[in-house]
Specification:
By secondary structure, the protein is mainly α.
């Protein structure tokens, strides 16, 4: 055999993307149906139609597996394209948050996950690091773009602005259990533009 020929060592893990995708889907389904506390590696493997070894080749723990699946589901929707104006970006952001929070699968997962996080500080930290920080970074990019265009004041308090953009939807949907319709989103855009002193 040629010295330059490379081959995968015997027994080495080959992570097939379609298997990883099936596992992630199974994790989300198990979370929605059983909750974090009752979710097991065995249950996920069975639902995904694979062995537990496939899971452990990818993640060393249940928490790592869950965070990975939630990140894959939660971070890409926060990537908002530049619409050309802060008002357009804001509307697109609110719509994306609304779709994320009302997705049937995620809406079933979120209450249980919030309760579990109250009992597990490590889970809170993992969710914040993998999802919260990354979603807020994408939101910050939208705000910075508006500041550079002169649509928002240079002294805009970016962390507070990010809170203002997400909190009303979370409160209305998950605490009040009220509907969010186009009229509500339009009113929210108007009030947020005023609150942020947008030009």
């Amino acid at each position: 055999m040629n010295d330059h020929t490379r081959r995968t060592p015997t027994g080495a893990a080959v992570l097939r993307p379609h298997v990883t995708s099936a596992i992630s889907e199974a994790v989300l389904d198990e979370l929605a149906e059983r909750g974090y506390g009752r979710l097991s590696m065995e249950g996920v493997a069975k639902r995904a139609g694979t062995g537990k070894s496939s899971l452990y080749r990818r993640w060393s723990s249940k928490q790592g597996m869950v965070i990975s699946a939630l990140t894959e589901f939660s971070v890409p929707p926060a990537e908002i394209a530049d619409t050309g104006s802060f008002e357009g970006d804001l509307r697109a952001t609110l719509e994306a948050v609304h779709v994320w929070l009302t997705h049937p699968r995620f809406a079933a997962i979120l209450p249980d996950l919030a309760a579990e996080a109250g009992r597990d500080p490590e889970l809170v930290q993992a969710i914040e690091s993998a999802i919260g920080v990354r979603r807020r970074a994408l939101g910050e990019a939208t705000l910075r773009r508006a500041i550079e265009r002169g649509e928002l004041p240079e002294d805009t308090h970016v962390p507070l602005a990010l809170d203002l953009m997400a909190a009303p939807l979370y409160w209305r949907l998950n605490i009040l259990r009220a509907e969010v319709d186009p009229d509500y989103l339009n009113a929210l855009v108007t009030y947020l533009l005023r609150a942020l002193n947008a030009r």
